[in-house]
Structures are given as structure tokens and as C-alpha cells.
């Protein structure tokens, strides 16, 4: 049935003419009319405060953020500029799920612009490459953001991480990224959302990094339930006049020629040669690239560390001041004609890619961590602990100190913290490794308290702990078994909405920079210490822990 013209005009004017869902088939993206969809746009996030976290040579990463989609006036100011690029997408790196995004999301939708939304927040709201885990705390951050955005027709995709893996050593993070993709896919499906699940990878060098392609394959291999929908590559290889398909992108195209899922450049725009000519744009959307690649996002609309900004904003926030490379990007992007091939009906299905094996440059196990189980963690807190952490639920600094202290103290007793530790290389995940820091500290405190034979000094922890002697050792034991008995078989299930787990991330944040997440968190720094404790012999386990260990 055709809609009357007046109704169409009304729907368009109110933004109610929804953008169609983009979906994937094989290695391509399509709109429902069967035409190929190419990502074409800019990253859109103000620069947050950045820190290198004291690590020599570390790339600066944001410690806070400004939510660009909560700023209705800012969106109204910027959309005419982004529209003038004939863009169809922006990428946003961090949002505050408790703020109202309706005005911006509707305004972008009306302008025909989709949003690719990263779910991570700076610092503690992202998978920490230095000691990775996939916990109820992170799952809550991710599902809160999905809950806040799932209603918008222009949510194209969500990213479950950005540049978490950036070296051989940090490939141990990959099982946690893949578990997050699995659980977020299931969660989106349970909400009836067709938004795609993506990840944005940093690029490596062809000569020194052999983890990029194994990581890409790892995230796309295996069952549909655990593989990504959309692979993003932050690619800065084409630099100005010296750039060429052969010199800049041919090796990347070759490496991904049999890749089974859609791929795009989640960032591009090298600044080695200013002003940027954007002469890579016709090639990005041209016949040499589109066999696998589906467009990309120029980095960055707003000013960003490193000189990547395309515009400045006046100090009163009312005016956009475009830079010298804006007009060049505008002329290149507006001149793009999408190659509509193949169409959906002629697109071939792709062959699955093998999951890469482990070697010294790719450490990830194919055994994934379980779905973070807030009900199990709450059950332990409520019934199985004789000594609970009662300090700040949000102070990750204090929590980090206490983890170090109690895990070292346990080590001195011949015990260890493996029940709350996760290891993506061995594929071993302690039964409380998916819990929030309050649950994990309470477990470690209770373990220590039991080992001390409930010496009152054994449940103090500088005033951060409270004993509950009405929890008997045998009562804790049976409570722990009951908590574990209700864990879904295999530990993988569809998460439900935010569990309200007792640790907040407290992170703020904005910030886009060519490298943006996977930041180190004080709360998790202790896990590095746990590795050292692992070598000690286990002995003299308290009954509580004995029961738990026997069970799994
Ligand atoms: C301009 O916007 C930024 C956030 O993007 C905000 O921090 C700043 O306070 C605003 N300045 C004025 C004068 O409104
Ligand atoms: C933004 O302002 C800074 C500082 O004046 C300047 O260095 C930079 O080139 C400007 N960027 C643009 C895109 O105009
Ligand atoms: C626009 O695209 C056409 C076809 O790709 C090309 O021949 C032409 O040079 C482009 N014009 C500009 C200004 O880039
Ligand atoms: C590790 O395996 C990948 C293939 O998965 C290979 O490309 C890489 O060269 C290997 N690295 C080493 C050090 O063997
Ligand atoms: C102490 O443990 C008992 C038994 O699990 C529980 O009912 C009670 O609420 C706990 N008391 C406190 C103060 O947590
Ligand atoms: C908790 O422990 C920290 C670090 O050990 C200490 O500085 C703080 O005072 C303690 N908090 C309370 C409430 O005692
Ligand atoms: C989100 O915004 C609320 C209200 O302004 C603020 O209290 C909270 O700290 C913010 N959360 C994050 C993660 O920035
Ligand atoms: C995981 O186990 C491997 C192999 O035993 C070890 O080298 C690595 O340090 C462990 N990782 C953590 C985070 O403990
Ligand atoms: C930690 O303690 C448990 C229980 O005694 C033991 O089975 C395990 O081998 C220990 N882990 C390490 C890494 O020592």
C-alpha cells in the first residue's frame, strides 16, 4: 500500500520515517531493498582527558568522556556539516546511559545518518588488556547502554571493544572480547534488535605484528552465536600524496580476501602529511576495495590528540570552524558513487574461517569465559560469606590495594585467588571470575577469615570488612553449593537487563583518539599479582573453599 504524500511528508518532518535496518549477508552489508550498504562518515566524539597511565611509550587513552549524543544543541549545530559530507554514519565512542539521547538520535535519523556506538567507557568500563575479564560489572555497563539506545531506528551497530588487543601479549584478551560479543548478540536478539555486533581493531605492521589477522579470524570463527557481525579496522596506512592502493592497502585486501563477515575501516585518515588530501576516498569505495571492504569513517570530526580534528568549535559552542582539509574531504565524499555489487540476491554465502591455534604471537584459548552471572554472584553475597567487603563499592583504588593484600596473604597461607581469576590463555575461568569486585573481595576475605579459624583480626582489612558469624562454615558450604547448582548448564545464557551489581564503574568519559579503550583499571591490577601466587602449593583449604573447588 502506498502512503499518501501528506502522510509521508508528516512522517519525514517528525523524523518518524524510520531508517531501514542494515543487515549482513555473507561478507556484505545490505539495506532491505537488497542494495549494498557502505559505511560513509566520520567519528563523532569530543576528546576526553587523556593519560598514558605512566607506561613508557603507551598510547594516550581517555580517562573521561563527554557524551556527544546528549548535547541536543551540539548535534543541531553539527548535523548540517556532517550531512554536507553526504555521510550516512557516525561512530560514537562512549555515552552516558542515564542521559537523554532522543533529540540527537532523532535528528541524526532524520538526516539519514546511522550511529555505530561503542559500548565501552574509559578506564573501568572496558575490557582491560592488562588483566582481562568479562564481568557482571562490564555486562551491566554494556546492557545499560543498549537499553538506552535499542529504541532508535538508526542504531546500526554496537562495538564491544576498541583496540583492546594491541600486541602479542594482549591477545590473551581475545576470549573476553568474543564472550562479550556472544552475550551482547544474545541480549540484542532478546530485545528484538537487529543492530550488528562489532569490534574495532587496531592495525599492526605487516612485518612486526602477526596477531592482527589471527585476531580478526578468531573473532569471526566458530558458531554464528559467538562470531562478530562486523569487523572494524582502524587503518592509517594511506598517508596523503604518497598513498596508493598498492603501497597502502593491497596487503590488507589480500589478508581479508576470504574473510567471512563484513569489514570496514572503523577509523581512517593519516595525518603524516597535512593538510589531508583524502585522495584515499575514491579508492576506499572503488573496485579494488569493495570485494571485501564496506567503507569507513574518517577520524575525527572534533579535535583529537595528534591533530586529527576536522573542525574546531567556537568557545561558546555555537559555531563550527572547519579546517583546511574539510573541503577536500567534503568534495571527495560527496563525489562517491557506491558500487552496488553484489546485490543481496546475488551475494554468495561465505565459507567459515578456521579458529586460529595458539602460538607465541597469538595466546588466546578457544575456551571462552562464561556469561557473567549476576544471580550467582548475588547468591554468594547473600548467603555464603562469613566476612564481607563493606568498604566503598566504587573506589577502585582501595579495592585494588585490598585485592593485592588479601591475595598475597592467602598466598602466604599456601592458598590462592584462582577462584576469582580468569586466564584467557589457559582458558580457565574461576567460578567467581565473572563477579563484581565486591563479591570477589568478600570471597577472598571469607576464605582468609576461615583460614584464620575466624580470628577476629582475620576479618578487618583496615576497617573495610564485616564478619557475619551467623553464617556457619558448614552453612556457607551448603549455600555455596546451592548458588552453583542454579548456574545454567555450560555457564552460557542470554543475559537479562542490568543486574544492579554492587560495583559502579564510576568512569566518565569521552574521548576519541586513534587508540581508545582497553585501558588499565586499578581495580583489576591485582590479577597480575595473582599470577605470581599461582605457583604456590595449595594447602589447608577452608571447608568453604574446598566445597567450591570440588564442585567445579
Ligand atoms: C561547550 O561544550 C563543552 C562540551 O562539549 C562543555 O564542556 C563546555 O562547558 C561548553 N561551553 C560553553 C561555554 O557552553
Ligand atoms: C583548531 O584550532 C587549533 C588551535 O588553534 C589549530 O591548531 C587547529 O589547526 C584547528 N583545527 C582546525 C580543524 O581548524
Ligand atoms: C568524481 O568521481 C569521478 C568518478 O569516480 C572522477 O572521475 C572525478 O575525478 C571525481 N571528481 C572529483 C572532484 O574528485
Ligand atoms: C601464529 O599463528 C598465525 C596463524 O594463526 C601465524 O600467522 C603467525 O605467524 C604465527 N606466529 C608464530 C610466531 O608462529
Ligand atoms: C548474616 O548471615 C545471615 C545468614 O546468611 C543473613 O540472614 C544475615 O542477613 C546476615 N547479616 C548481615 C548483617 O549481613
Ligand atoms: C579501607 O582500606 C583502605 C586501604 O587499605 C584504607 O585506606 C581505608 O581507610 C579503609 N576504609 C575504611 C572504611 O576503613
Ligand atoms: C552520567 O550522568 C549522570 C547524571 O549527569 C552522572 O551522575 C554520572 O556520573 C554519569 N555517568 C558516567 C559514567 O559518566
Ligand atoms: C595465564 O596463564 C599463562 C600460562 O600459564 C601465564 O603465562 C599468564 O601469565 C597467565 N595470565 C594471567 C593474567 O595470569
Ligand atoms: C589454587 O588452589 C587450588 C585449590 O587448592 C588448587 O587446586 C590450584 O592448583 C591452585 N592454583 C594454583 C595456580 O596454584
Automatic annotation (TrEMBL):
Domain X8: residue ranges: 385-485
A cellular component annotation (GO) from this entry: side of membrane
InterPro entries reported in the protein's UniProt record: GH, Glucanosyltransferase, X8
Signal peptide: 1-18
Topological relation to the membrane, as annotated: Lipid-anchor; GPI-anchor
Main location: other
Name the record gives this protein: 1,3-beta-glucanosyltransferase
Organism per entry: Calocera viscosa (strain TUFC12733)
Amino acid at each position: 500500500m502506498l502512503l499518501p504524500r501528506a502522510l509521508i511528508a508528516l512522517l519525514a518532518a517528525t523524523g518518524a520515517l524510520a531508517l531501514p535496518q542494515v543487515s549482513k549477508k555473507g561478507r556484505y552489508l545490505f539495506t532491505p531493498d537488497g542494495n549494498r550498504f557502505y559505511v560513509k562518515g566520520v567519528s563523532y566524539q569530543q576528546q576526553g582527558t587523556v593519560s598514558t597511565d605512566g607506561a613508557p611509550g603507551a598510547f594516550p587513552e581517555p580517562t573521561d568522556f563527554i557524551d556527544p549524543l546528549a548535547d541536543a544543541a551540539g548535534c543541531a549545530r553539527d548535523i548540517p556539516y556532517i550531512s554536507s559530507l553526504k555521510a550516512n554514519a557516525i561512530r560514537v565512542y562512549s555515552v552516558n546511559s542515564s542521559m537523554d539521547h532522543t533529540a540527537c538520535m532523532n535528528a541524526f535519523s532524520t538526516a539519514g545518518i546511522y550511529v555505530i556506538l561503542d559500548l565501552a567507557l574509559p578506564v573501568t568500563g572496558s575490557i582491560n588488556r592488562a588483566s582481562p575479564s568479562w564481568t557482571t560489572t562490564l555486562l551491566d555497563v554494556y546492557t545499560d547502554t543498549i537499553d538506552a539506545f535499542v529504541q532508535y531506528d538508526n542504531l546500526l551497530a554496537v562495538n564491544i571493544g576498541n583496540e583492546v588487543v594491541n600486541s602479542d601479549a594482549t591477545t590473551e584478551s581475545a576470549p573476553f572480547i568474543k564472550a562479550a560479543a556472544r552475550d551482547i548478540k544474545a541480549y540484542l536478539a532478546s530485545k528484538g534488535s537487529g543492530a550488528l555486533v562489532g569490534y574495532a581493531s587496531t592495525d599492526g605492521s605487516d612485518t612486526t605484528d602477526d596477531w592482527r589477522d589471527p585476531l580478526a579470524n578468531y573473532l569471526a570463527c566458530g558458531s554464528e552465536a559467538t562470531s562478530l557481525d562486523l569487523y572494524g579496522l582502524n587503518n592509517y596506512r594511506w598517508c596523503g600524496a604518497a598513498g596508493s592502493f598498492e603501497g597502502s592497502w593491497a596487503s590488507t585486501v589480500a589478508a581479508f580476501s576470504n574473510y567471512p563477515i563484513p569489514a570496514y575501516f572503523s577509523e581512517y585518515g593519516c595525518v603524516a602529511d597535512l593538510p589531508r588530501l583524502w585522495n584515499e576516498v575514491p579508492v576506499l569505495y572503488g573496485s579494488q576495495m569493495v570485494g571485501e571492504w564496506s567503507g569507513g569513517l574518517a577520524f575525527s570530526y572534533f579535535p583529537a590528540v595528534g591533530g586529527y580534528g576536522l573542525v574546531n568549535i567556537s568557545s561558546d559552542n555555537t559555531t563550527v570552524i572547519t579546517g583546511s582539509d574539510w573541503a577536500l574531504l567534503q568534495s571527495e565524499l560527496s563525489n562517491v558513487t557506491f558500487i552496488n555489487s553484489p546485490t543481496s540476491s546475488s551475494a554468495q554465502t561465505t565459507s567459515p574461517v578456521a579458529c586460529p591455534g595458539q602460538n607465541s604471537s597469538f595466546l588466546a584459548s578457544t575456551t571462552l569465559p562464561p556469561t557473567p552471572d549476576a544471580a550467582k554472584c548475588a547468591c554468594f553475597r547473600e548467603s555464603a560469606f562469613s566476612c564481607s567487603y563493606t568498604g566503598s563499592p566504587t573506589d577502585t583504588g582501595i579495592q585494588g590495594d585490598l585485592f593485592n593484600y588479601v591475595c598475597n596473604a592467602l598466598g602466604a597461607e599456601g592458598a590462592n585467588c584462582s577462584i576469582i581469576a580468569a586466564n584467557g590463555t589457559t582458558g580457565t575461568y574461576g567460578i567467581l571470575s565473572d563477579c563484581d569486585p565486591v563479591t570477589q573481595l568478600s570471597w577472598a576475605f571469607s576464605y582468609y577469615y576461615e583460614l584464620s579459624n575466624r580470628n577476629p583480626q582475620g576479618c578487618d582489612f583496615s576497617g573495610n570488612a564485616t564478619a557475619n558469624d551467623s553464617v556457619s562454615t558448614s552453612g556457607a558450604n551448603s549455600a555455596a553449593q546451592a548458588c552453583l547448582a542454579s548456574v545454567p548448564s555450560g555457564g552460557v545464557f542470554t543475559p537479562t537487563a542490568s543486574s544492579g551489581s554492587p560495583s559502579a564503574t564510576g568512569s566518565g568519559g569521552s574521548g576519541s583518539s586513534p587508540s581508545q579503550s582497553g585501558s588499565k583499571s586499578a581495580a583489576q591490577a591485582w590479577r597480575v599479582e595473582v599470577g605470581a601466587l599461582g605457583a604456590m602449593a595449595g594447602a589447608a583449604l577452608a571447608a568453604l573453599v574446598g566445597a567450591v573447588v570440588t564442585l567445579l
